[in-house]
Write a structure and sequence with these properties.
With about 375 residues, the protein is an all-beta fold. It has one domain: Methylamine Dehydrogenase, Chain H, CATH 2.130.10.10. The chain is built from 1 helix and 29 strands. The strands form 6 sheets. It has an 8-stranded mixed beta sheet with strand order 3-4-5-6-10-9-8-7, with no helix packed on it. Strands 1-26-25-24-23 form a 5-stranded mixed beta sheet, with no helix packed on it. A 4-stranded antiparallel beta sheet has the order 2-29-28-27, with no helix packed on it. Strand 12 and strand 13 form a beta hairpin.
Length: about 375
């Protein structure tokens, strides 16, 4: 196994599964001092890396705007793919090696969906969706080589009564600029006084997708589609020990990862800025709730916390500088505090239960707050056995 890959030296505990009823794991997770994030020095990037997608333990792409970094050997070497002239790429999802789609913009004004094509370039695969500031596309998930689902915000900075969703089921003609490839639909909510958006999306199959909004509003924050993204229904968060309706309404949801059609992990922040983790193994019928007090640290990252689950049992959560790992579907989380010299973690992708890749940015802190974000870097995680 290459040293640049993430190596979790763990044994999956047989028989430990997510409980049928929501339980609270209030005891502090175990710390492991012999673990670290390792910087991949093979990547030379002078720009901030804001997204990463790894469909396998050897292939990853990470965008820094005008270029997309790519590795085919687990990070030993990185090449650079250019975006089409005047375009940028700021988030990516790869259904397979060399089959990647992204969200981009042209001249910083209009949103486009992008696609990786032969010749090491990224080109638009749709006409312009909307002007930025009117409609925002925040996340994309591609469960197959021909289908992707993207989610976002209807009216940033104003009132709205729906969440926008874009679905494509015909992406075989890469490089096409036909706007008809993508079809827009909406998830309605009846509160005109709240500005809301869909923060993240995870599609474990071409048939099933999940998405999460910023806030728990009007009785919902989590939505499921069993129709290729054509229609959606809210998933109730019930039977969660020590989690009241008032507590739900005070949460800010940030990320979701669903490795199977029934198992999902949601992460976000409580009102006091502590990390919370919500997990279901049965599509939302029951939930497990975990709060990690004081996990965030002094600086704030708008994309954090982030979760990536390689399987229903194995998930990794990153929160600024902190790594949390479960190998038994959330029965126990291992808390790994990482050295800040590696930078502020901004995105995460775990293609297998033994490998993870993350992007991080060098930071300048003033009075324990992030003053600026610098050049991006790729991190891999390795766990060293205790002596």
């Amino acid at each position: 196994m290459r040293t640049t890959r993430l190596i979790f030296l763990v044994v999956l505990l047989a028989g430990l599964t997510l409980s049928a009823c929501g339980q609270s794991s209030s005891s502090p997770p175990v710390k492991r001092a012999h673990s670290r994030w390792t910087i991949q020095t093979s990547l030379k990037s002078g720009a901030r890396l804001v997204g990463i997608s790894c469909p396998s333990d050897t292939f990853c792409v990470a965008g820094d705007g005008s270029t997309v970094k790519q590795t085919t050997d687990g990070g030993q070497t990185w090449t650079e793919d250019r975006a089409a002239a005047s375009y940028s790429v700021y988030d990516e999802s790869c259904a397979a090696n060399y089959v990647c789609r992204g969200i981009g913009s042209r001249g910083g004004n209009y949103i486009y969906f992008m696609s990786e094509v032969s010749g090491s370039t990224w080109v638009p695969v749709s006409g312009k969706i909307a002007e930025q500031g009117v409609v925002g596309v925040d996340a994309i998930s591609c469960p197959s080589t021909s289908e992707c689902v993207a989610v976002g915000t209807a009216a940033p900075g104003g009132n709205a009564n729906h969440y926008p969703v874009w679905v494509s089921s015909d992406l075989s003609a890469t490089g096409s600029s036909r706007a008809s490839i993508w079809k827009r639909s909406e998830i309605s909510f009846p509160n005109l006084g709240i500005t809301g958006g869909l923060q993240a999306v995870s599609c474990p199959s071409a048939r099933v997708c999940y998405t999460v909004s910023d806030f728990y509003q009007d009785g919902a924050a989590f939505f499921k589609s069993s129709s290729d993204g054509a229609s959606w229904r809210p998933v109730a968060m019930k039977h969660v020990a020590k989690l009241s309706l008032a507590s739900l309404e005070s949460l800010t949801f940030k990320s979701v990862s669903c490795p199977t059609s029934e198992a999902c992990t949601l992460v976000g922040l409580t009102r006091s800025n502590d990390l919370f983790i919500l997990q279901t193994k049965d599509g939302g019928t029951s939930w497990r709730w975990t709060v990690e007090l004081g996990a965030r640290g002094p600086s704030f990252n708008g994309r954090s916390p982030i979760v990536s689950c390689a399987s229903a049992a194995v998930c990794v959560v990153v929160d600024d500088y902190t790594t949390f790992l479960t190998t038994n579907a959330g029965v126990k989380w291992v808390n790994e505090y990482e050295p800040r010299a590696d930078g502020l973690i901004e995105s995460l992708s775990c293609p297998t239960s033994r490998e993870c890749f993350a992007t991080a940015s060098r930071v300048v802190l003033i009075n324990d707050a992030v003053a600026s974000l610098g050049a991006g870097r790729i991190l891999t995680f390795s766990e060293v056995p205790s002596p």
